Amino acid sequence: MTGKGIAAAFMLLLAVTMRAHAGEPLSDEQMLGVVFVADQAQIAAANVALRKTRSSSLQVFAKRIVSEHAQVNQEIVTLTQRFGTQPQRSPTSDALTQQSNDDIAELDQTSTYDFDEAYLEHEIAFLQKLVHTVDDYISTTRSAQARTLLIRSRPSFIFHLDQAQRLQITIGSPGLIR
Fold first, then answer.
1. Which of 2, 65, 92, 123 is 20 to 30 Å from the Cα of 107, by its Cα?
2. Is the pLDDT assigned to residue 178 strictly greater than 70?
3. What is the pTM of this model?
4. Which CATH number fits the domain 3-16+28-171, given the four candidates 2.40.30.20, 1.20.1260.10, 3.40.50.150, 3.40.50.1450?
């Protein structure tokens, strides 16, 4: 499966899962659980990129992804501990975990030659959906603290999306410094 195939499969799975559970509102802890799993997926994909890419720009991007998504997850853990709970599983987070595992396996099998393009296609599709999901959760979360955390995290996700799109242009342009 190509990077576009991975991205399309992820988008389809997440859209179907979210639509299937639209009648079941997620608790704040479940919403944070979905974001937590998405952050873990981003970290896992970035770690594959750190192993496989030869692009210094992509390595810098992947290191930033690892650092910033780990920070968001630490904030989620801290917040849910204040609630006296932890990030909760849901059908959405379970589906996302499975899709992430499949995507990571696919990225891991992608040739070094094709990796950068496949990784960036994956990142763009994933981050677009993550931003959309966070926007939905901001408007539906019941806790002001959870909403604040999501609002504070959103610019980072948008920045990562913008970086991935810019890198995709750069990586696809011969003669530009990679």
1. 92
2. no
3. 0.85
4. 1.20.1260.10
